[in-house]
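Table 4 source record.
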Amino acid sequence: MKTHVSYFASFLVVSCFEMSYLSPTFSTSTPYLEIQIYSGFVQIFQMAQMFVLGPRLILSLREYHAKLVADSDAATVMTSICYQERVHVETGSGV
């Protein structure tokens, strides 16, 4: 579960970088060279997000879901024991 949080947090950070890059005050008040450097970092982070973080998040969620399904199957097998046929034992008719 910790890896899911870290992947989601990294998605959030990259998205914040992208949103700040689209800000109109950023492009008007910042020198051209700094805009180009920031643009390069945003592009690198976008590529990392698309080709590293995204697939890793999907694969880890699939693995987590597979473990949950496997554990739920084991739990249903254990509960089926209580539904076995019961043998009736007579205690007597004097009660």
